[in-house]
Write a structure and sequence with these properties.
The chain has 511 residues and is α/β, with parallel strands linked by helices. The protein contains 19 helices and 20 strands.
């Protein structure tokens, strides 16, 4: 173990003890934060409106405070954006993580207090690093630099309120010591134009000793390819021979894994998932071979979970009491509800998770509460789509750089016969299959293997016929995202959508 790792682990001793204790007694930390949240939210306008002074128990909280999605929370957030203080939290909020989500074009402004930035986001990242170095004591991660592909942030007319990608807010407020171990410079990382940023990173970072990087796989894949183009090298190890860690999140990694393995041909390379959303840092992969990410329970977030089979009744107010971390079970799809030190109260973030274990509580992201195709009773979640796609790519020896899926609904034909519905996949391959028709049938079969509802609807073409495939030229998704002003940062391609409007736009773009 090198001296830097020894110093870091000594500094992280309390975090490692906490991570260990949280796996056997998570509610100890959850109750601590529940009391902190209620106490510090009591003086806010929201807290006074909902009688926080009279909330003593979780049951009180669930009875008094309704669950809200972004649209229901927006009136409070708009007051913050207009400069009003102490609306959702007992403190001033001057930062907002701007997010379009994955199923809406409307921008969302998630309030980020300085406390949530420090305790939740930076705190989650520190836990992940501490866990990694503790598991890999011979790591050389701190002997080089971390590569950062940031977003952008802009002030309002007053110059007092800032909004932008979460990554940009993290960069803008990072401690000075971080600048020493990170590349590129903060100025370069915050360049607004994505293409200009990539070019600047290549000039500035290609000669550095980069050991790790983090972020959304699709955007980082573009960066790595630009680095190879700039340097004329054939793989990343020829540029950065000490590369050892990619901390990924935002979208499923499995469809991208073969491409990264090809670009970084090293058995020493580690790929760890983390769940760092605009609303908070929720989980990280503490063991590379473990199924799921370890939920963070001591960084300013109180969790509740709605079983998806009762989601509508909960949102209609028919059911008020829902499970906390103490009552969740493995194998159930839950919608996450959070209350945070950023001022979100019983906020439905829109993500669905499934617990792979309890004590320790590990989760996998299974989809979105509204990002699920259920046009024919098939209940296709994003996790199903990504798992099937990865299997099909492996069987057909190909790799995918981007994709999206939509249902094509049944229609009544001229002979009064109803046509069968199906899913249309628009895919951009980085390495295409030898036979696209065989790939389409293989993907369809893989979907039946990972989703029993899809299998039932496909049996004998009862309700659905085989999926159809639209193969798009390379660069189509990037051009489409650029036209929508959604390049880089936290922006993500909508993987599953309720209709085929996006696929039609992409196919038109790809002509």
């Amino acid at each position: 173990m090198n001296i830097i790792n020894s110093i870091f682990l000594k500094y992280s001793h309390s975090l490692l003890k906490e991570i260990d204790r949280s796996q056997t007694n998570p509610m100890e930390y959850q109750m601590k934060w529940f009391r902190h949240l209620i106490g510090n939210g009591a003086e806010s306008a929201f807290g006074k409106e909902h009688g926080f002074d009279n909330i003593k128990t979780i049951k009180d909280f669930q009875q008094r405070v309704p669950i809200r999605d972004y649209n229901a929370t927006a009136p409070y957030i708009n007051r913050l954006l207009q400069g009003e203080d102490y609306v959702l939290w007992n403190g001033k909020v001057r930062m907002f993580a701007k997010s379009s989500g994955t199923s809406s074009d409307k921008s969302k402004y998630i309030p980020v207090s300085m406390e949530s930035l420090q305790v939740t986001h930076y705190g989650g990242f520190k836990r992940m690093l501490a866990s990694y170095v503790n598991s890999n004591p011979k790591s050389r991660i701190f002997l080089g630099k971390a590569l950062t592909l940031g977003g952008s942030v802009t002030p309002d007319k007053t110059g007092k309120i800032f909004s932008g990608d979460l990554s940009a807010l993290l960069l803008r407020n990072s401690p000075a010591i971080v600048e020493v171990v990170r590349t590129p410079s903060r100025k370069t990382a915050l360049i607004g134009d994505f293409e200009e940023k990539l070019a600047a990173i290549c000039r500035e970072s290609a000669r550095e000793n980069v050991t790790n990087f983090s972020g959304v796989p699709s955007w980082n894949l573009m960066l790595l390819n630009k680095i190879l183009e700039y340097t004329g090298k054939s793989d990343i190890l020829q540029v950065w021979p000490n590369m050892e860690l990619f901390m990924h999140g935002g979208i499923g990694f499995e469809p991208y894994r073969p491409i990264f393995h090809k670009l970084i041909p090293s058995r020493q390379m580690h790929y760890l998932e983390n769940y760092n959303a605009s609303e908070g840092y929720f989980a990280f992969q503490d063991e590379e071979q473990a199924e799921g990410m370890l939920l963070t329970v001591n960084n300013g977030i109180f969790y509740e979970f709605i079983p998806m089979n009762i989601l509508d009744d909960v949102l209609d107010g028919k059911i008020k009491e829902i499970p906390t971390l103490a009552e969740v079970e493995t194998g159930v799809n839950y919608a996450i509800v959070i209350s945070t030190i950023g001022g979100l109260w019983r906020y439905l973030i829109g993500d669905c998770v499934r617990f792979t274990s309890t004590y320790p509580h590990r989760i996998v992201i299974t989809g979105r509460t509204q990002l699920c195709i259920n046009a024919f009773g098939e209940e296709l979640m994003i996790s199903n789509a990504e798992q099937a796609l990865a299997k099909a790519c492996k069987k057909c020896n190909c790799t995918v750089s981007d994709f999206t899926v939509a249902p094509v609904f049944m229609e009544l034909g001229d002979n009064s016969q109803t046509s069968k519905g199906f899913h249309r996949w628009a895919i951009e391959f980085s390495e295409p299959p030898a036979d696209t028709a065989l790939f389409a049938s293989t993907l369809d079969k893989c979907l039946t293997e990972v989703n029993s509802d899809y299998e039932a609807k496909r049996a004998g073409n009862a309700t659905m016929k085989q999926l159809e495939l639209s193969v798009l030229p390379q660069g189509t998704f990037l051009n489409w995202m650029r036209q929508r002003g959604k390049v880089g940062g936290q922006n993500k391609v909508p993987r599953l959508y309720k209709d085929d409007r996006y696929i039609k736009q992409l196919c038109q773009e790809g002509k």
